[in-house]
Amino acid sequence: MNCVSPALIETDMARDMTPEQRAPLTSKIPMGRLRKPEEVAAVVKFLVSDESSFVTGPCDDISGGRSVY
Known about the structure:
The protein is mainly α. It has helices spanning about 10-15, 20-25, 35-50, and strands at about 5, 60. It contains three helices and two strands; from the N terminus they run βαααβ. The relative contact order is 0.31.
């Protein structure tokens, strides 16, 4: 089993937030921005492809460094 942990993604829900709501969330991401849906999809695409046939059990953190601070 593999896991993808993207944190907050640039979606309609995130875009509907006020700047005051988004600022504290974005400030915790060292890369300084929310991730794009395409970035999450690329990781999932890799995990379901034959290229990941020997990948087992990771939790892929695609949070822009948020979980590292």
